[in-house]
Structure to design on (139 residues):
């Protein structure tokens, strides 16, 4: 008699799966908006979406894992707990530009709030391991 080595996750009640799906969908939507709005970091939000989908729907999890843009990022994170260097650089530049823009537009004393939030996200992002670029070890 052979036993499966994969852990068996308990079946979640439908209401929990729905909440995980909503959280994953919102996270992914905000991450996609972050592609165009510099204050929202796309990579961490896509990773959060994948985490939520893994608890809410195997179908949605497979979709994000097989997505041509998001899939490699999520797979790399799961395999190495590493974020691509390009993603870190782009997120930092975009958050810096967005923070400067917000500081210019926001009135008075609250203009620094987005910069502090983005600085915290950037510090967390840069504290994560960095994935080597494909082919970098060949040079």
């Amino acid at each position: 008699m052979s036993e499966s080595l994969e852990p068996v996750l308990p079946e979640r009640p439908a209401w929990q799966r729905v909440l995980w799906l909503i959280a994953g969908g919102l996270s992914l939507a905000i991450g996609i908006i972050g592609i165009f709005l510099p204050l929202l970091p796309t990579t961490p939000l896509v990773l959060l979406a994948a985490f939520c989908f893994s608890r809410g729907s195997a179908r949605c999890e497979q979709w994000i894992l097989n997505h041509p843009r998001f899939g490699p990022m999520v797979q790399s994170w799961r395999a190495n707990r590493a974020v691509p260097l390009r993603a870190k650089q782009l997120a930092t530049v975009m958050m810096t530009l967005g923070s400067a823009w917000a500081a210019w537009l926001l009135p008075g004393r609250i203009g620094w709030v987005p910069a502090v939030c983005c600085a915290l996200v950037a510090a967390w992002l840069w504290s994560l391991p960095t994935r080597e670029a494909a082919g970098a070890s060949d040079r």
Notes: The beta strands are 83-84, 130-131.
